[in-house]
Design brief:
heterodimer; A: about 110 residues; mainly beta; 4-stranded antiparallel beta sheet; globular; B: about 110 residues; 5-stranded mixed beta sheet
Chain lengths: ~110, ~110
């Protein structure tokens, strides 16, 4: 049982390049989330999904897109990376009810030059 | 306005002493509240949660948290701190809002 995994662990991009971050979970969770963590800012929700084929915007969605084609995977895309998107990105998943805790992946450290 | 606040950026405590990491909330109604811990270069790990019932919630690694509705607080506590408890602690609510985090440093 791997839990929540994220690919890649590290990435360096140049401004304007695109990339996709992959999140996978093997716990059959309905809900999945993408957060970014910046110093002094805590975690901020980018996008989330309440089930296969559905996505919704979080607190800071601009510059990002997501897709949930399979229940176990949640992809985060950057179409044209900007230095302001330099951050550590965390994926999480949970069962559907709002009282359920989230399980987090190990994170992806992204640097945009 | 942020619905979860952690007023301290850092808490320092000596090993063996009790520790408290503070969290206040502003979610209306009956809140669901959570504490997570993050060790260096790792993802967040769930510690404990409050849903309803007993105001004192017990969690992993000897941590507990006290829910206080009149003070809208959910402070994390441990009777005797360990050096290995040194980490970043986050409070969160069910609206997917996290506090900014509090760094706990336990000195030997």
């Amino acid at each position: 049982n791997a839990g929540v995994t994220q690919t890649p662990k590290f990435r360096v991009l140049k401004t304007g390049q695109s990339m996709t971050l992959l999140c996978a979970q093997d716990m059959n969770h309905e809900y999945m989330y993408w957060y970014r963590q910046d110093p002094g800012m805590g975690l901020r929700l980018i996008h989330y999904s309440v089930g296969e084929g559905t996505t919704a915007k979080g607190e800071v969605p601009d510059g990002y897109n997501v897709s949930r084609l399979k229940k176990q995977n949640f992809l985060l895309g950057l179409e044209s990376a900007a230095p302001s998107q330099t951050s550590v990105y965390f994926c999480a998943s949970s069962y559907g009810e709002e009282a359920r805790e989230q399980f987090f992946g190990p994170g992806t450290r992204l640097t945009v030059l | 306005a942020q619905s979860v606040a952690q007023p301290e950026d850092q808490v320092n405590v000596a090993e063996g002493n009790p520790l408290t990491v503070k969290c206040t909330y502003s979610v209306s109604g009956n809140p669901y509240l959570f504490w997570y811990v993050q060790y260096p270069n790792r993802g967040l790990q769930f510690l404990l949660k409050y849903i309803t019932g007993d105001n004192l919630v017990k969690g992993s690694y000897g941590f507990e948290a006290e829910f206080n509705k009149s003070q809208t607080s959910f402070h994390l506590k441990k009777p005797s701190a360990l050096v290995s408890d040194s980490a970043l602690y986050f409070c969160a609510d069910s609206t997917l809002t996290f506090g900014k985090g509090t760094m706990l440093l336990v000195s030997p």
